[in-house]
Here is the input.
Amino acid sequence: MASILVLGCMWGDEGKAKIVDYLALSADYVVRFQGGSNAGHTIVSGGRKYVLHTIPSGILYPKTKCLIGAGVLIEPPAVIEEIKTLEKAGISFKNRLLIDFRAGIVLPVHKQIDLEIETGRRGIKIGTTRKGIGPAYSDLSARFGIRIEDLADPINLRERIKLLYNYHRIRITKQNLEQQVEDLQKNWRYLKKYVGDVEILLNEIAAKQEKNILFEGAQGTLLDLNFGTYPFVTSSRVMTDGVGIGTGFSARRLNKVFGVYKAYTTRVGSGPFPTEILDETADYIRKTGNEYGSTTGRPRRIGWFDAVAGKFSARINALDNAVLTCLDVLTGIEKLKICRGYRYNGKIHRSPDLDNSRIILSQPVYETFEGWDTNISNCKNINKLPWNARLYIEAIEDYIQIPISLISVGKERQQTIKIKAHKR
Ligand code: IMP
Here is the structure.
């Protein structure tokens, strides 16, 4: 058996889904362990584009089983819609999807609260996806949350919804309450065939039968609830250890952890972004890389590769290998920069150990690299890449101290360069 994890190492949107899709060829199971419909995983296969939000990317391989762990949030109507859309595209779900009965539910009230925060009526604006993720996770932590197992019994469900509204001191009319119970019961009738025990399946069946298990991260390490740029983070555990928390399959059992980095950096939403660029180079990268949110359509903020954050992420995730995506997007840019320190008050910080107010005032310390202008999108071998591209890759590898084993040079599965294992 091999159990591998693919996770994002920056602020999300690193191109994980393409890498999961590439590696999923030999996976028996693809497993989501955190996040919910805030994720937008785009895969281009056979010239067709699929955007997945809660369903694991392995669904595109007909024999791969897809599991959704206890740490994932389910918005029932959105998941049903996603399943139906994929079925319409010819993808079968028969015996292929299992959602852990412990997974939490996003209710309309969570979206309402998220929206109130984002429109400035409560608390700090984070620039969330407005999918109700923060409020739903915090209700689960406060023990007022509702889990998918609660949908089975309408009497219990009604009580739980009432309690939840009461906890938030939000009035709910009898009619609204009955409507929500009815809608969720309808959702339950559709989803119940997919609900079961993912923990048992992973530990007692998949692992014992030596199956290949691929864990698919959503968002990125710098959005992790504890280790990200708090409070401008998502509300789940995005790091390697999130696998155990979100599925019951301990991260100690992982054989390999792949960390995905984009060849530059992007971020959506508010929060510190030390290497952000605001000139025409950013517009060029945004346009060439189609850097718009898959879930919200928002233009992504663009920055140079941030090796300070990248190294931190490699360390806390105990990466075995790194993957570099979107290298092709940088083609045609004359000079490239990599940030290798944050200068604050005369001191250079090599780890993101500054609080937000100081990070905003810090200056990135850059190293500049010559760019390349030959089209690399059909390149299959690292030795065939332009010399300057190779120097750029080597510099990233050197900074993050992790060997790069895959490089993506385009959206299609086959536009991937595999690098033979090498010792650093
Ligand atoms: P939330 O996860 O919707 O609560 O949003 C919290 C922060 O995480 C915001 O800055 C979002 O833009 C960001 N975020 C959430 N999901 C993603 C994602 O899939 N890619 C990139 N950023 C994300």
